[in-house]
Amino acid sequence: MRIDGLLDVVAGIVAEWHRAGRAYEHAVTHQAHALRTAERRMDSALSGLGLRRWRHLVAGRAQIYSSQDGLDMIRARRIRSEVEAALADLDTVRVREAERVAAARRRMAEAAARLVPYGPLATEATGCSLADLRRLAAAARNH
User: For residue 1, what pLDDT is reported?
Assistant: First the structure.
């Protein structure tokens, strides 16, 4: 293969690497935003009760020492379906966003695996050390 052909191949892989990197950064940012939104929904559903306290009250294990405890128990039971829906949504968001981040990381790892054989040329083009590229490439092989 001629040098200019080799450089074209590496340039294509590097472009793929950069696209994968941007996609990974976007996935991580999106994950953080989606989790914050789902957590705010859950906090809103709890209407001032903490999750641990709500679970304790709904399970009927809470001791009633004051009228406030009794009111909290009534409120916990009244908001049960809303809180359970918010918890289910939070779990769904966690799984979905973790899968998106993992998929983006796999694309980076696949690009890294394609770059590793080019050694110093790959490190110069990506700004990553060869050891980092190899670690990412190993992650691609393990998944």
Answer: 57
